[in-house]
Design a protein that fits this description.
Ubiquitin-like (UB roll); 23% strand; nine-stranded mixed beta sheet; elongated; 3 domains; three-stranded mixed beta sheet; alpha/beta; Rossmann fold
């Protein structure tokens, strides 16, 4: 049996040309199909279904805030980019975006639960229950009694945790902690609803808790020595090792001659110990 003769060069060239043309036709068909999908109004995003416990957003407000910023149609929209768009809407903490055939997006929302104001009064920042700082329209906040926290933004969760630790400790004084500051050096300072200020000092949360407990357990005893009640407190410095320094309304323990000297801390008779 004789070997097959090789195809002539012109035949090979014709076969190669035909293959290339076939591939180009295929690419053209795919491009035309893609263009049709991109341009066909039937595949435009026709609705946004909102799920989750939301109080500050609904489908109408979301559509007004997010829909104009979505790129593409039902098939081509980038779900990751869409998620970022929805999470940029005020009060939205987290969004999960899914396609829902034939032309809708389903958005599962989690909103921020504001537990405190953050920073100065002229700022519109708040802290959520996770200790995260977020921007919000303060006018949307229904609770008028939220505390105000201050400190480095990256340590907001730490400030919130300290606030939650100190609040029940101060409850026996029938007062609440209105503001709490964390300085850049790690020092803690608070202001009560009466306007009185408390210098807690620095240290671990356990150390701050210990000096606060000592103060709370002995304050009534100390103020009574001067014929005053607890609500006469104007300020207290708890940073002393064996006591604390007080300023009471209408009472001074500094003579005129010693006015320029630092006040000595009050040492309670029986300071509470852990």
């Amino acid at each position: 049996m004789s070997d097959a003769l090789p195809a002539p060069f012109d035949v090979k060239l014709m076969n190669l040309t035909a293959s290339v043309l076939f591939m180009l036709c295929g690419v053209a068909v795919l491009a035309a199909g893609a263009w049709w999908v991109l341009r066909n109004p039937a595949f435009a995003i026709g609705g946004i279904v909102v799920q989750g416990e939301v109080t500050h957003n609904n489908a109408v407000t979301l559509r007004a805030n997010a829909a104009p910023r979505l790129q593409g149609n039902f098939f081509t929209v980038n779900l990751g980019a869409a998620r970022e768009v929805f999470e940029s809407v005020p009060w939205v903490r987290k969004a999960v975006v899914q396609r829902e055939f034939p032309n809708q997006l389903r958005v599962q929302l989690q909103e921020h639960q504001a537990v405190a104001h953050w920073g100065r009064e002229d700022q519109s920042t708040m802290v959520n229950s996770f200790g995260e700082v977020f921007e919000a329209n303060v006018g949307d906040v229904e609770d008028d009694n939220l505390p105000r926290l201050h400190g480095p933004t990256e340590r907001a969760a730490e400030v919130l945790a300290m606030y939650r630790r100190l609040t029940p400790l101060l409850a026996p004084l029938d007062t609440t902690l209105d503001e709490l500051w964390l300085s850049s050096r790690g020092g803690w300072r608070g202001q009560l609803d009466s306007g009185a200020t408390l210098e807690f000092g620095s240290g671990t949360p356990e150390q701050v808790e210990a000096v606060t407990q000592r103060f709370v357990h002995t304050l009534t005893q100390v103020t009574s020595q001067y014929g005053r009640r607890v609500d006469a407190l104007e300020s207290a410095d708890l940073r002393h090792n064996e006591g604390y320094a007080l300023r009471l309304r209408g009472v001074t323990t500094i003579s005129a001659e010693a006015a320029a000297k630092p006040a000595k801390p009050v040492k309670p008779a029986n300071p509470a110990r852990r």
